[in-house]
Design a protein that fits this description.
alpha/beta; 8-stranded parallel β-sheet; 10 strands; 10 helices; about 300 residues; TIM Barrel; globular; two-stranded antiparallel ribbon
Length: about 300
């Protein structure tokens, strides 16, 4: 396993992190969650990501149980808040009220005294950046958070948060969590350059394009038992299953296999080719699947393969 600094901080996170979206607390049971966390940790993963809205709190609760046997100082724990958690008009967004109450609720579900990183799950046009920065800074000073980050913010929004923190004597975000993979590279245009200038790193999700880049959908087939074939799991994958994307995924798989590398490993290693990405979040429903993904942390793609993947 390799480790990189999280934004402007000196905190180091594993380049592969374990996420809980669409799996923990929902499609896998507690025993599998425990097994995945154990395997990840023993393989050098020290970064675990979740969110309050994942399975409406169940993901945080299940992850808290799985992490309980570990020494708290040995891992970095991140959660997120923004999306509605109830019909309460204030139980959503990034107001000081919701941020503070969300942090307390996440701490209770995760059975911990502090979060290493709390991330604003989206930008809130109804809340001023001043209010967000002040609330996050207060939570950090209280010891309930060590750092804060954002998710799916634009480069300009990240820039504004950093400038606001400097002007108000607060803490700037350390990270942004966007989707990023061979098929979704939008952040290279504005988000990465502005984040780099602000000393904010990316913690990317969907590095395998919801499994599309694993090679399992060769020829456009949807194998039984796969995410694409499961209507409970495929709502985010379906829009990506276009003829063009399936053809690109087949090319990626062919290039990887010709180089003697598993398609998923090649796709993950490509995502980690830049230091702008501190960590790539992977999800898993089984230990063997996780083991294969973790192998990407130690792979340096040959220059010719990187160029060929870029061309796809």
């Amino acid at each position: 396993m390799r480790y990189r600094r999280l934004g402007w901080s000196s905190c180091k996170v594993s380049t592969i992190s374990l996420g809980s979206w669409l799996t923990v607390g929902w499609t896998i049971d507690q025993s599998m969650t425990n097994a995945l966390v154990k395997q990840a940790f023993e393989s050098g993963v020290n970064f675990f990501d979740t969110a309050d809205v994942y399975a409406r709190g169940a993901a945080e609760s299940a992850l808290g149980i799985a992490l309980a046997p570990l020494k708290r100082a040995d891992y970095v724990l991140a959660s997120k808040c923004f999306w509605p958690m109830s019909d309460n008009v204030n139980d959503r967004g990034l107001s000081r009220k919701h941020l503070v109450e969300s942090v307390h609720a996440s701490l209770a579900r995760l059975k911990t005294d502090y979060l290493d990183v709390m991330q604003c799950h989206r930008f809130d046009p109804d809340t001023s950046v001043d209010e967000v920065v002040d609330a996050m800074s207060d939570l950090i000073r209280q010891g309930k958070l060590l750092y804060w980050g954002v998710s799916c913010w634009t480069g300009a929004q990240i820039e504004a948060a950093v400038a606001t923190a400097a002007a108000r004597g607060g803490y700037a975000p350390v990270s942004n969590q966007p989707p990023y993979n061979l098929l979704e590279r939008d952040i290279e245009q504005e988000v990465i350059p502005k984040s780099r200038a602000a000393h904010v790193t990316q913690v990317v999700f969907s590095p395998l394009a919801q499994g599309l880049l694993t090679g399992k959908y060769a020829g456009g087939k949807l194998p039984a038992g796969s995410r694409a074939a499961d209507d409970k799991k495929n709502s985010f994958l379906k829009p990506r299953l276009t003829p063009a994307n399936l053809a690109r995924a087949d090319k990626v798989a062919a290039l990887a296999r010709a180089a003697g590398i598993a398609p998923a490993v090649a796709a993950l290693a490509w995502t980690l080719r830049t230091q702008d990405v501190a960590s790539a979040i992977v999800g898993a429903s089984g230990v063997e699947q996780l083991k294969e993904n973790l192998a990407a942390a130690d792979v340096d793609l040959p220059a010719d393969l990187r160029a060929a993947l870029d061309a796809v």
